[in-house]
Design goal:
alpha+beta; Phosphorylase Kinase, domain 1; Aminoglycoside 3'-phosphotransferase, Chain: A, domain 2; 3-stranded antiparallel beta sheet
Length: 295
């Protein structure tokens, strides 16, 4: 077990809207979409996603998530064409109603399957590592606007991450690894454009298992590059991690250590979320991340 049981698991949220409620919202606000087939795609920590014909609609599960969707609406258009792969483009902006208490957003559905839902060969994994390293290098090199929100959560602050892990009651070996990284210097450099929540479910692969999209940008902010580089420690190991970092460019030891600590924390959270919600894919992502980050 990764965690001790918690009295009130944070993934317990209000029930998502029903398909009837979703259709009613579309009929009232976007009548041109009301006749399209509606299928629930899944439910995450922040949103419930619905397929509406060629569109995807995300409905927040709590008030602060609605603010994250608003952030996508403002900032994602400024990243159009920056990455060599597709990113979401918000098109429909729904208003809250009795059945859906927070604003919701619709996007053109991007092609591809999530990286946690398919198996990859060794060569495909290497190609994915290189493609993600290159994509992050491009993202982090883009000039940061003054108004882009900063990291308000201290995502790579060693002291805050270690405290969060201790509150979660992690196992002794995980706690020891985290403690070994507690003296890592905090990020002191200029902030960069940061996705903020990169893991396998937010990477889309095409029919050839090549990277074709990056989704779920609600945590977009100006912050520490280590936040995104944690993907290299959680998703890749050995020579694949080396390929990821080589494609990205020079990474100093302190940044790599913060990325590893962030990867450790994210793996713990994903494993707990997967276990608590019965999501086998997330549980696998978290557990495999813990195995890789220890190496």
């Amino acid at each position: 077990m990764v965690l001790r049981p918690q009295a009130a698991p944070p993934w317990r949220r209000p029930d998502p809207p029903t398909v009837t409620a979703v259709r009613e919202q579309l009929r009232a606000q976007f009548p041109q979409l009301a006749a399209l087939p509606i299928v629930r795609l899944g439910q995450g920590w922040d949103n419930t996603a619905w397929s509406v014909g060629p569109w995807v609609f995300r409905f927040p599960r709590r008030e602060d998530t609605a603010r994250l969707l608003a952030r996508e609406r403002i900032w994602l258009p400024q990243l159009a064409g920056v990455l060599p792969v597709a990113i979401p483009h918000p098109v429909f902006f729904g208003q809250p109603t009795e059945h859906c208490p927070w604003p919701f957003v619709g996007y053109r559905r991007l092609r591809g399957q999530t990286a946690c839902s398919v198996s990859l060969t060794a060569s495909q994994t290497r190609a994915l590592a290189e493609a993600m390293g290159d994509a992050l290098a491009r993202l982090h090199a883009r000039p940061v606007p003054d108004r882009l929100p900063r990291d308000e959560h201290g995502r790579t602050d060693p002291a805050r991450v270690l405290a969060a892990l201790q509150r979660r009651g992690v196992s002794e070996d995980i706690g020891a690894l985290a403690a070994s990284l507690q003296d890592t210097p905090r990020h002191r450099g200029a902030p960069v454009w940061t996705h903020g929540d990169l893991y396998a479910r937010h990477l889309l692969l095409d029919e050839h298992r090549r990277l074709c999209g990056v989704i779920d940008w609600g945590d977009l902010h100006a912050g520490d590059p280590a936040t995104d580089l944690s993907l290299g420690f959680m998703r890749f190991g050995g020579v694949d991690r080396q390929a990821f970092l080589a494609a990205y460019g020079p990474v100093d030891a302190a940044t790599a250590a913060r990325a590893r600590l962030r990867a450790l924390y994210c793996s713990v959270v994903l494993a707990a979320l997967g276990e608590g919600t019965g999501d086998a894919e997330l549980l696998s992502v978290g557990r495999s991340g813990l195995e890789r980050v220890r190496r």
